[in-house]
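Appendix C reproduces, verbatim, an entry submitted by the partner laboratory led by Prof. M.T., so that reviewers can inspect both the input and the predicted structure.
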Amino acid sequence: MSGSTGAVNQQMTVSLTTAQGDVLRKEARTMIAIRLNLVHEGRRYAPTPKEIRRACEEIQATWSPRERARRYRGPCAAAWTPPLIRLRDIIEALNEERAGGPA
């Protein structure tokens, strides 16, 4: 069993330059620190909206058309706000109802 595992591991090995390996290790350490909510660059890590958007775009750039279709949820709905009702209108309607006027 261990012989086949070794063959699989050898097939999955990717050649990296030293610089690429260093970058990946630094990114991995950063991601681990973020996941553990540790201090990042002297401050508590809180990504900016721009950083979040950039990271999302980088991840989505790796998606196949099939994956993109699987994750598609349709166009974003416009923000909904409840109708504005003046308190005076409610009080007048209640008073009319109590007085037996138009409902």
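Residues 1-13 have pLDDT under 50 and may be disordered. Additional entries are available on request from the coordinating office.
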